Each structure stands twice: as structure tokens, then as C-alpha cells.
Amino acid sequence: MHCVGRCFVAVVLGVAVSGMVSAATAAEPAPISLTELCIQVRPAFVFIGGGSGVLIRPDGLMLTNDHVIGRKRSFTVRIGDGRSFKAKVLGTDPVGDLAALKLDVPEGQTVPFLELGDSDALRVGDEALAVGNPFALGVLDQAPTFTVGIISALNHTQGTYTECIVTDAEVNPGNSGGPLITMAGQVVGINGQISTRFGLRSNTGLGFAISSRQVKLWLPRLETAEGGEVKHARIAGLEFLKAEPESGQSVVIKDVADGSPAATAGFTAGDTILELDAAPVANARRLAGLLGIYPDGHRVPVTVQRGAEKVSLEVTLTAPERAKLGFSLARARGEDLVPKVESVEDGSAAAAAGLKSGDEILEWAGQRLEFSSRDDRRGFDRRLRTSVNVGDIIPVKVKRAAADGDGEKTEVDLRLVAK
Amino acid sequence: MKIWATASDSRTSRTRLLVACVAGSLTGLASAAQPAATRAVADHVLAATVGISATTSDGATFSGTGSVVTPTGHILTSTSAVPADAAEIKVMFPGFVDREATLVATDPVLAVSLIKVDAKDLACLPVAKDMPRIGSLAYTASDVDRVLLTNGRASFSRGIISGGYDVVKQGESAYTGPVLETTAAVNPGSDGGPLVDATGRLCGVISLGVSPLRWQGVAVPSTVLLEKFSKLTSSDVPLSFDAPENLADDPATRAAAEKADALGRVAAFMAPHIVGIEVTRQHPPEALPRISWDEFLATIKNWGKLAKPEKLKRFAAFANSSRAFEVNQLLRRPPGAVTGLVVSPDGFVLTSLFNVGDDTAFVAKATGKLREFDPTSPIEKLLADPTGGYVRQPNTITSVSVILPNGDRHEAKVVAKHEPLGVALLKIEATDLAAFDVLGGGSSPMLGDAVAVVGRAPSGPQPTTFNDGIVSSPSRNRGYQFQTDALLNYGNSGGPVVDAAGNFLGIATAPIEPDTILGRLVPPQQLMRWTRAPNSGVGMVARADRIKAVLEAMQEGRSFNRIPGPFLGVVADMDRAFGEDVVIGGVAPGSPGDKAGLKKGDRILEFGGVDLKTWRDLTDRIAASTAGDAVTLLVQRPSKGPRLVVAGRDLETLEDLQRLKKSLRPGDTFEGVLSIEDTREIEVVLEENK
């Protein structure tokens, strides 16, 4: 069996509950049958375009996937109780694949909704109900599809979905943007991607949902984004020791850029990151996953191991900002594809790093530079312009003529801090 | 060795399937266990599920999942995760612990490997010495997508044991022989991982072998391993066999077991009525040109090294090609007998229309021979092939035979077809068959209710397969069908669907179907921009009540091509299906709507004086009418541009304007109306949908 791709579940669907699912608010939810649960959540479901959505507030706040709305900013949607509304996009996160919309609910009216639950309280094995519009089956007869499974895994990274929920409830094209619901009627995830195989765009028992925790972190920003995008963020100014990518090796900081948010937060070279926002950081993949759930500007507590002690820090996550390195490369001539520094701007990051005109760049960011073609080389030039962000620490090895000018070239290690 | 529990013989009642209903189980069979119990099983299984990667001395890499089976570090996995010549084996344990392992033994026939890490007191899975029942709860765990790296544990899935049969040699798996089949998730990466029974015992090792008819995950049973893999039972491998006490004595586990027994009885009751159906066509499936993803992949050099955008492009080229789908799915009916249900002692057999459906073969225009396709060629190029392209040719059925439970084979005739239901009725010359009395029982599906599809097992001693699920939507296709998330595939299409109380609910239709949905009102291409696939969890079932209503007519040879009743002949504009708009997306030529002059883009405001808000309102009104009724529709037609009406004249053309100018004198005044839309009354006469 080959896994051939990952596919978005891009017909839209939604679920709603009249008033709110009563079971969701009760302190001790009385057990209700699956039939009752389906009937209760149905009104809060939303049919939107080729996918699904869910209402989460009586004033018409609705969630779906970014890939369901695409570039459109206004929609006509139908909710699970049969009513039709205009809806406009409040804000989107194209990376996290989340979008918030607001239904144009007339003054004095409300819409059924489901409460956002606590995805952190989920355990593997818990029951999960997916509501959706697979294959656009329910558009005309206004009846969404209900499928049942369990929570298969948590904190999973799947492409740009990070810390996501894995479920074996059947999710198919069209379920995108629809809710993953607990037996207490609470939304704990927004279904969005599935694993496919045999080249078929259909369920194989692996559905990926954006956690309600992530939704809650983004919602205040999405609601005020005025139809625009909210950006993802990272800890600017950290360089990590290289770890085996497919292993459980812990995350050790090699270097911290002066004046960066990381330096301001108090990170120090040699620190091992233990926890981020109380979640254990076992390896680089988990760290990247955890950072994926916060919007730009969020402050998160971090615990690091420094020598024998554990130190608590707090850092502001910032969206990557394109850096200007301040040097230019000579055009590649003939067979010679080695990048040679042509000029260095005064006061630039390159000047501060000690890069000099005439330097031949041998290694960049720990990577030996070897180009097989001019295209290959042009790719590197492009990378310098487009993929370096403020705060990145880039170890550079250059070859330069000795100062005394005797023609002997020496290799020099530099530390370039992008700004 | 007898490894399958035999279904008990049951001939007591032919009219109803009533079996003991387990109280309190309102969700699916698999949901019978309470969350706490499932959590406990998950914790137990995931503590002993590991991710494995292996490298051979020539640098080939392998990966998969394994189960720890002894506290001292023995791990069972498959040869596809750890081949016999593995030089370096790495194991990732739960909690982000990496360990090196050594190979203890492999068995190429069973396709399993036993490896060992140096450890003690590890959490491990006991091994089941007996076979689980068909229908009983089962779980799988796997390091799919390296989930252990972020989650610290493998991915866990719940399902049932859906079948037990023999698999034959296939491309990717060396294993042939008896397997346990499960509805729990099995994906790439699951290979070598555990199949666990309701009480937390390892009852199988996930294998790449599948039945082409079923497309479901299978495992090599632990009973087979214990008998044939001698290294596993040697004295230095201290296996345990007893279920953990907290799981063995759990009331929820017992309730699930009871429910499994109840469903097992349903399966056993159904078994004597389940027949195999073999259909041969002019062009047998194995001779048909096909494009499979695997074959396509083989044509792409260095797939593993391609950048993601390029991969996506290549994948899209394959997957988005509608004909690739057709070739892949419609033409790729796997060989083997499909499922039917005997409904009369004298030889009427119900099955899905899909099973005896008309297929299309693609033949070369010039030669008329089966067309070979170059899978790397883009669809546009195929269509514009200068050598003449292809033509579609019906792949006609040359024979249909029915295989009775006792193995007897009878030639069958297709007596009648019912398109909206998606069923067909066959007839064989026979007497005194064990018939299931469709007319005598039956029940209506309720949203969320537990259901199960009974299919004919591909081979082996278990006669039936059993896939459970819930009612996902109680009514589709104007009430002719209901929808279930039970896995429907080539194998069980045509099989009966029952509920936990043993009521007959209907006949499973197609694993794929460009179906009729709303009859002639909605063409499939508009509603179905996606093709449903086997085991997608979106499956349609012909409803028992509708079958009962037409069975006698079908026995008399009457076929139903359309939903009976009045017919207008318009389809919805799907882009505007969400608003309070009833906008026509297309009009069938020659239909009553066409004759009355309805046009694409028309908005129907009223039907016989009744306001319409949604397309469903329209279909409901049509359904409530009678063929022959003359109905007045209030229709709003969008004009091409603003429509100017001056002094009672409609100025549509330049000539109209010039004529107006000629008629005017200095000092004339007049009033005009600028209208953008045009509302008119249109009378249609509904016709019978034939």
C-alpha cells in the first residue's frame, strides 16, 4: 500500500445546535444516544461552498477551513436548521487552514451554535463524531453526514497542520471545515485534511483536525483581521544544534542573536528547551509543531534546562520578516559557480559579520555549497534574497586572500546575524 | 487446524433476523465500549507499540510498526519493516526513546520478523491463543506518518474483526494464507503493527496482504504465528497469553463482547442466504487497460527526491484526470465473486445494480481493440490523440452465475434493474433455497443507529464478512437510499444491511457510484464532482421499505430506470444552492420544463402559487404533484442587460430605439421603466418520469 498524498477535504460542511447543545453546558452531561446527539448538533452545521463549517456563537460566528473559502470573501451559506444567510470572512490563517466568518444575522435573531470544547482534555480512545458534507451529498437535501470514530492520536504534525488531532471517524472530500465533536456535543476540532492512498481521494481511517486549542488561540485575532490574514510566528534569534531529524533528540540552542526577541527573553547558548507553554518539547519536530499553533505576537512561557537548573522564560513570538543582508554576489561566470562577494554595504548585517568583498562562500548555514548548474546557483542567490529572516543566525565559512597579500587563501568562519 | 469459529447453523426463522439486542448500546457496535474502556485499551496497546526503521547493508531503508511481546524486548513486526538482510535496526519506543535492535529471526512465508532490544520490564502485549470472532471489537496501532515523533505514541484506531479468509500472493506481500480482516485503520506505516482484540491481546500482525475485493486491512493471525513461527514459541521468548485483568474483567468489554455475539448471530443467520455472484464481461477486468497509481509512480524517476510542489503537480496530473479515475475504478473491478441475497426459495437473488452494471471499455478508434494508455501522458493529449484517440464501447456482460453456500453454481439471468434504488434482481433455476424473506420483516433506519453490512467472504472457512457502522443520513436519493459510514467495497456490495436488533434495513449498493441522488432533477456530474471510493465511509444502502414495495414487480420482470412520479426536468444551479434562491442550472432537452420554455438561469419564485425558498422546496412540490398536472410557475429571468421600457415599448434593439425616435415629436413627454429582471408566469405540464 502506498501513501500517495495528502488531500484537503474541500467541499464545505457545517453543524449547528439550536440554542446550544444542552449536553455541552451541563456540569455532568447526561448520556444521550448518538441519534439524539446528531439531531442536537445538526442545526449548528453550515453548508458553505464545496465544504463544511460550524457555528460557534449565537451571533453567527462561524469556523471553516481556509481552503474552503479560498480567495472569496463573501458567501451565502445554509445552516443546519435550513435557514440561509450571507456571510463575510473576518479573518483567515492560510497556513493553519483556519477561517472565521460572520453570518449576517438580523437584529434580534440568533443562530444555533456549538460550544468550543477543550481539546487538551481529549484522550486517545475517546469517541468522536464528525459532521460534514462529503462529496457535496447533502447540499440539496440539506442533510449533513454523520460519521463516528475515536481520537487516534494527538499533537500530530501533518504538513502545515501541527499539534493536530488524528481521528478514524470517516472524513472525506467535502467534510473540510466541519466540526469534530465530543459525545458531550462540544467542538474539539475542525476537520480539514485526510490521508489518501491508491490515488483515491477518500478516507483511509486517518483524518486530521485542527484542535480547538489552536482555534481559541487564533479566534481573537481572526475576528479582528478585517478579512485579512493573520500570520504565524516563531522565536526569532535562535540557532539550534543540528539533531537527527527523525529522532527523539532534544532541542539544544547553539546561538542567540543579540537584540532579538530570543535574547530579550533571556535564551542563552547551551540551553535545552524542555517545555513550551507547559507542553514537553521532546525534539525539534515537536517544537516546530507547537510553534505552529500560535499567531504572530503571542507571548509564550518556555522552560529551559541551563546546566543543573531549570529556568522559566517568556518570549514573544514574531512573524518572520524578510532580512536585508547587505552584500552582493558577483555574477557567476562560465564554469565557476562559487559565490563571490562583490560588495558589502557599510553598517549592514554582512559588514557586522565581517564579510569582505572578494570572499568566496564555501558554506552557508552549515551547508557546503556545491552547485551542479547555473540554475542551481541562481537558486542560492534567490534564497539569499527571499528566505532569510530578521534574527536568523547563519554560520558562514568563506575563503579569502590573506591580509599580507602573499596569495595564500585561508578559510574563515563568520557568524552572520540577519537584520 | 481449525482456526475459524463456525457460524452456528440457523434455520429457525426465515422472516426475521431477530436476535438478542444488547441493552443500552445506542451507537455502533464499536462504540459499545465506554470511553474509559477504550482509553484503557489504548493506553495498554500504545505502551507496547513501537516505530521501526531498518537499513540493509546496501543502503535500502524500510520502516513500519512493531509490537513488544516480551518484557525483555522481543518485538514482532513484518518483513516489510525488517527484512531478513537488515543490517541496522532502530526502534522508537513511546516517550521518545530510541533503541538499537538486533534481528532474532524472520519467516519469509509468514512475512514476519522477530527483533530484540536489550531491555527489561518493558510494557508488552499478551498474545491471543484463540481467534477472535467475526464482528468482535478490534484495535490497530501504527506509527503512521512518524506520529511517535510528535505524539510520543503511535496512532490508535478502533474497529471490528470484519472477516477471516485466505489471501493469495500479491505484489507487495509475501504472505499467503489465512488472515484476519479489520475495519480499524490500516495505512502505509501500519505494516508489522498490532491487531489487538477486545481484551488487549495481540491477535494478529498487520500485513500488506489484502483481498482485492475488500481493500481492507488484514493481519496474519497470532494463532498461525504460534503454530508456524517456531522462534516465537522457543523458551527464550517469554510470551504471555493472558489478557490484562483490568481489560478482561471490564464490564464495557463484556458488553461489547455480548454485542459482538449478537451481531455474530446476525451474520450466522444471514450466512445461508448469502450467495456469491460471478459476472464475466466481454473484456475481462484483467485484460482492460488501466492506470494505477503504483504503475504511474513507477514511471516517475526519483519520486522520493522531487520537491513537494512537483509531487503535487504529478499527483494532480494523475488524480485530477477524470478518466484516470474511470480507468482506475470503474474498469478495475477486481476478479472474484461478489455478494447477493437469496430472496425466494425458487431462485430470486437480490444484489446491487453496480455488480451487474454496464461498464465501458476504451478501445482504440482505429483498430477497435482495447486501448492502451500511457499513464504519463496528460489527459488533454490522450483526448486529442492524432492516431484517432479512443471510443467508449460497452463492456457487455457475457454471463452471470450464482454460487450457492454449498458451492453449487447456477447460471443466472438479470431479471430486473432498479436504478434509483441501485439494486438488481437475478434469477436462477433452483428450488427449496434457503431464502431470506424480505417482505416479512424490515425496519426503517434511524440517524446514528448501529448497522452492519453482511458480505460474502472472498475465500476460506468463514462464509461471511461483517462491516459495522452507523446510519450517517437516514434518507438520500429521495428516500430510496440511506447512507452509512460502514465500509462498502467490491466484496460486500449487494449484501444485506442489518441493525443490531437483527432487522433487515436494505441492500448495500455500490462502493462507487455516479448515482442518481435526486433522480432526473440533478445530473450526477453536477452534484458529484468527486468520485466516491471503496471504503470511504460514505456508502449508500437501498432501503428495505422501498425494496419491499417493488420486489413483486421486479420479480415479474419490471425494471425502473427513473424515480417514478412527476418530472419537471430541471437541475439546480449548485453555485446558488445555498441561498433563498431556486435557480435553474440546466434544463433536460425534451422535458416538460424545456417544452414550457424554462431556461438556465431562471429563478423559480413560485410553484402553483406557493413560495419557493430552496431547491428542496421545489422537489418537495414536484413530488407532491401528479403527472399530468398543469402548474403555473412564477419565473424571474435575468435579462442580458437593463431592459428599457418607454411609453409601453420594450426597447431591446437599436431598431426599437430608431422606431421610437421616428415616432416622437418635439415637446413629447413620456414615462419609462428601466427593469433589470423580468418576472413572468410559465405554465408547465408535469409528465411521468419514464
Provide the fold topology.
The complex is a heterodimer of chains A (419) and B (690).
Chain A: E1 3-8, E2 13-15, H1 22-25, H2 34-41, E3 45-48, E4 51-55, E5 61-64, H3 66-69, E6 74-79, E7 84-93, E8 98-103, E9 127-132, E10 145-158, E11 161-167, E12 179-181, E13 187-197, E14 207-211, H4 212-223, E15 228-229, E16 238-240, E17 251-256, H5 261-265, E18 272-276, E19 279-280, H6 284-291, E20 299-306, E21 309-316, E22 327-329, E23 341-344, H7 349-353, E24 360-364, E25 367-368, H8 374-386, E26 393-401, E27 409-417
Parallel strand pairs in A: 2-4, 7-15
Antiparallel strand pairs in A: 1-13, 3-4, 3-6, 4-5, 5-8, 6-7, 7-8, 9-10, 9-12, 10-11, 11-14, 12-13, 13-14, 16-17, 17-18, 18-19, 18-20, 20-21, 22-23, 24-25, 24-26, 26-27
Chain B: H1 35-46, E1 49-56, E2 61-68, E3 74-78, E4 86-93, E5 97-107, E6 112-116, E7 137-142, H2 147-151, E8 155-167, E9 177-182, E10 194-197, E11 202-207, E12 217-221, H3 222-228, H4 245-248, H5 251-270, E13 274-281, H6 293-299, H7 308-319, H8 322-330, E14 338-342, E15 348-352, E16 359-364, H9 379-383, E17 390-395, E18 397-403, E19 409-418, E20 423-428, E21 450-456, E22 464-476, E23 481-484, E24 496-499, E25 504-508, H10 524-527, E26 539-543, H11 544-555, E27 566-567, E28 570-572, E29 584-587, H12 592-596, E30 603-607, E31 610-611, H13 615-623, E32 630-646, E33 649-651, H14 654-663, E34 672-685, E35 687-688
